[in-house]
Write the C-alpha cells for this entry.
Amino acid sequence: MIQLDINCDMAEGFSRSRQSEDLGILKWITSVNIACGLHAGDPHLISRTIEAALRHNVKIGAHPGYADVQGFGRRSMNLSVNEVYELVLYQVSALSGMTRAMGGELHHVKLHGALYNEAAERPELAEAVVSAIADIDEELILYALSGSKLVEAGLEHGLQVAEEVFAERAYLPNGRLAPRELEGSVLISKEERMEQTRQLVLKQKVLTVNGQHIDLAADTLCVLQEGPDVLQFLVDLHRWAKQNGVSIEPIMAR
C-alpha cells in the first residue's frame, strides 16, 4: 500500500486570524508546518496552533522563512550563508522550545517561500539550512522540494528527508515550482488539483507547464491553506486515497 503524508502551512496570520479554519484543516492532515514569527505568525497564534495540533495528533514542524512580514517571506533577502544559518537556527529553536514546553516534540522542518525556493537551487544555502537543523536535532525530518539541492544536502548530512510535492502548484520542466507571477502557477479547479495529486502519488510523475511529464518522488503532499475550498478538497482527497489503496499517515522517524 502506498503511504502518503499530507502537510499544510499554518499560523501564518496574526492573533486570532483564521484560527477556526485552521482547526478544521487539522482534522484532515497528518503534519503541520507552523510559522515561526518572522514571515508571519505571533506567539499567541503559534501557541494555539501547537495546542490544536497536539490535540488532533498531528505531527508538528517548524516553518522558518525570511524576516519579511510585508512580503510574506516571498522576497529574496540576499543574506550571507552565515546569516541564513542563524536565521534557521533561531526560528527552529523557538518552535522546538515552545512545542516541548507544551508537552510535544518537534517532528520536522520545512522552509517557507523564497528561502524554500532558493535553498532548493543553491547548494551553499542548502548546506547552511541543513547545518542549522542538524545542530539543533539530527532526528528532525527535513521536508524539502522533491529532487532539489536541499534534498541532496539533507541526505549528505545524514538527515531523514521527506521529498515534498504540491497539489496546487504548477511545475517547471526542471522540477521546480512555477513562479507565482506566472499565469497558471497555482491550480484553481478541483479537477486539476486532484489529477495532479493522482499523478504524483500513484505514478510519481507530474505534468509541467510546457506539457512534459517528469519524475518526482512524493513522500509528503502539501495542500495550501489558502487554496479554494481547501476543506472540501481534503475530504475528497481522503475519499480518493481510500478508493485507490493509499494510506494517509504521518512520516515516522527512522
About this structure: The mean pLDDT is 95. The helical segments are 19-26, 43-55, 81-101, 113-121, 123-136, 149-156, 190-203, 230-243. The two ends are 19 Å apart (CA to CA).
